[in-house]
Amino acid sequence: MKGPSVRGRGGRLPRGGRGGRLSLRGRLLTISVLLLVAALLASTAVLVTLLRRDLVHQVDDRLRTAAAVAARVPVPSGVAGGPVEGAPSGDFYLAYLDADGQVLRVVRSAEGNAPGLPALDAAAVGARGGRPFEAPSAGGGDAWRVIAEPVLGADGEAPGEGAAHGGSVVVAGSLSQVGATIRQLGVRVLVIDSLVLMLLGVVGWFAVRAGLRPLRRIEATAAAIAGGDLTHRVPHPASARTELGRLSAALNGMLDRIEAGDAARGATEQRMRRFLADASHELRTPLFGIKGFTELYRMGGMPERTDVDAAMGRIEREAGRLVRLVEDLLLLARLDEGAAGADLPLRLTPMDLRTLAADALHDLRALDPGRPVTLTGPGGGRPGGAPVLGDEARLRQVTSNLVGNAIAHTAPGTPVRIGVGTEQGRAVLELRDEGPGMSVEQAARAFDRFYRADSARGRAEGGGAGLGLAIVDSLVSAHRGRVEIHTAPGAGATVRVLLPLAP
User: Cβ(446)–Cβ(402) under 8 Å?
Assistant: First the structure.
């Protein structure tokens, strides 16, 4: 059986190759060394080229001086190719040519090689114009620099056509010393460059290691975060304007958002678990009551008609409580969908909050006739008009929940003030009681679902499910308004509903 293929898509091997085996530090060091090698080789080549050109220019200057002197000297007599006393030895070559380019007399070192000269008749010499040129060695070896000049007469002018010779003089210098100097310099430069590369490689290793230390801290931070610790942050470098500084700031900002999102998600999950637990408990309480009475009836525990009627009345009350709880949960769910972009279950019509305030006044007096209730403006004074666009049935539910909340959380006979009017361009409806009030922590959670500031209040004792203020907040938000609560322990509580004024 064939093993699994290691090729990627299209039959090609995955990318990476040998480059993927090197660490970032190794790759940076390799690239730096390669660039340094290229720079050293290029600079060495330029240096050698310039030095060779200067040395050749020095040879050319010597040849021009020797050619100018030899062109004014009469052609020595004697056999062609014979040595002449006093001639320069070593890498120097001098020869006299006739007008056809034939050698008349050669003066050169006995141990030196002669240059391989091209055709140098009178026309060729004139065409070169006394410019130096390079010629190979006849016996092999280093090249020669050559200058050809016409032979001058005694008066310093070129002889005419009737002159005895009318030829030229050729002066050449070997480039063997130039080549030896260049080769010696090349060897020394290569040795020095090798030592420099070795030294810079060692220094570069530690320099790159120190330069990548912030990246190693980022790596350690990322590893800690991957392990679940979101409190780690990347240390800020000395300068925030560098790439590492901007990277550290961006990573820390991202980590802050991740931590905040994780905390918010955890808080949401915690609220959801608490909501499900509270909802289950609230639903279970009336269901258990109904189930208990039905089982009692089935077991024959209600022999009298009055017992049956009392049980049925209790079942009816528990069923009504269950229906109200389910309707409140459905309303909150629909309002949540509206906040998420779905159509809101509201029918907006022009209305005045004074009508709701007056009805709330009558409800309070009916529920607790001994309770002092007054109708004022916001904060006191005379009540005023508060025109809004709203769903009257839903806003009546808001005032009903506020009235029920005041009745449930204050002692009988506690004064209550209802304020209505406008304030800072908004319609205001407020309900103020002089009850026990709430702490800062309790006020912050007053609009949470299933939250009750008095945890000792039993559900069987008439306590609500803790959805009243949550429904108030959701309904007012659906009307593009907001709810405020101002309270302190022992100072009562004021709940203010602020809605946009009708145009």
Answer: no
Question: Please, which residues have CB within 8 angstroms of residue 440's CB and are 6 or more apart in sequence?
Answer: none
Q: Do domains 229-345 and 349-500 have the same CATH topology?
A: no
pTM for the model stands at: 0.46
Rounded percentage of the chain residues whose pLDDT exceeds 70: 81
**CATH of region 229-345:** 1.10.287.130
- Which residues have C-beta within 8 Å of that of residue 247, sequence separation ≥ 6? 218
Nearest CA-CA partner of 97 in 131, 147, 38: 147
Q: Which range among 127-131, 237-241, 303-307, 319-323 shows the weakest confidence by mean pLDDT?
A: 237-241
Ranges of beta strands (E only) in 324-438 are 349-352, 373-376, 387-390, 416-423, 426-433
CA distance 139 to 112: 9
Domain ranges for the chain:
49-182, 229-345, 349-500
Pair of tokens at residue 41: 């080789």
Topology annotation, domain 349-500: Heat Shock Protein 90 (3.30.565)
Cα–Cα distance between 298 and 346 in angstroms, integer?
45
User: What confidence tens digit (pLDDT) does each residue in 231-281 have?
Assistant: 777 776 656 677 777 777 787 888 888 888 888 888 778 877 777 776 776
Count of CA atoms in the C-beta half-sphere (13 A) of 479: 31
Query: Which amino acid, one-letter code, is at 211?
Result: G
SS3 per-residue string spanning 80-138: CCCCCCCCCCCCEEEEEECCCCCEEEEEECCCCCCECCCCCCHHHHHHHCCCCEEECEC
Show the tokens assigned to 159. 């002889």
